[in-house]
Write a structure and sequence with these properties.
By secondary structure, the chain is α+β, with helices and mostly antiparallel strands. Among the domains are: about 70 residues, Arc Repressor Mutant, subunit A (Orthogonal Bundle), CATH 1.10.10; about 60 residues. Helices cover about 45% and strands about 10% of the residues. It contains eight helices and six strands. It has a three-stranded antiparallel sheet. Strands 4-6-5 form a three-stranded antiparallel sheet. α3 packs across α5. The longest helix has 28 residues. The radius of gyration is 50 Å and the shape is elongated. It comes from Teladorsagia circumcincta (Brown stomach worm). One of its GO terms (cellular component) is transcription factor TFIIE complex. This is TFIIE beta subunit core domain protein. It is found in: Nucleus.
Amino acid sequence: MDPELLRQRAAFQKHAARTVSVQQRSQIQLPFPSASHTTYNAEAAKKKKKPVVQQNSKPPEFDFKTTVSHSNAANFGTMAKIVDYMKKRHLSQQQWPLSLQEILDELQVYDLPKRSEAWLREALPKNPRLTCDEELKFCYKPPYKIKGKTSLVAVAKKHHQDVRGGILLSELNDCIPNGEKVLEALSDQIIVVPTQVNKRKDKVFFYNDQELDIFIED
């Protein structure tokens, strides 16, 4: 081969080798600085708030009046529940007496405080809607001794003779069930008049004294 061509070929290969070496170096990337290497900021450290130590607050004071008021309200609520239950027993002809413990058992009241139970033992005998016998057993006491048609007419007649006015239907319903139907069956002996008591609609009935009837000729 021509010596000149050989020389040019050698020069070309040498130049190509240098070019490849430079390109490989340019592809090498320097490592990025670590994010963990941060500069200490003294001013920011000074601005950090010191933990606030809270003083122990005083426990709330015991309010005796409020506690007594809530206790009395609960006691009266329990007594009202007992009276209402005894009334339902009376109207369903379950009129045998029960002790306080028997009443509480039937009402499924098992968590009554001892103080409330003692209060009920003292208050229930004084309730006008209950009777209490020598064994401290209770029965419901209706406002009138009315058990049916005959006793209803007798009580209404007694009211008329004593000039005591009429008897409310709401009171009759505390004595017997279905009081209004009983009055309808006694329409020839009883006079019923609509009325209103404490903004509630009611009815009042009177004995029909036929001796006071006035005959008017046409």
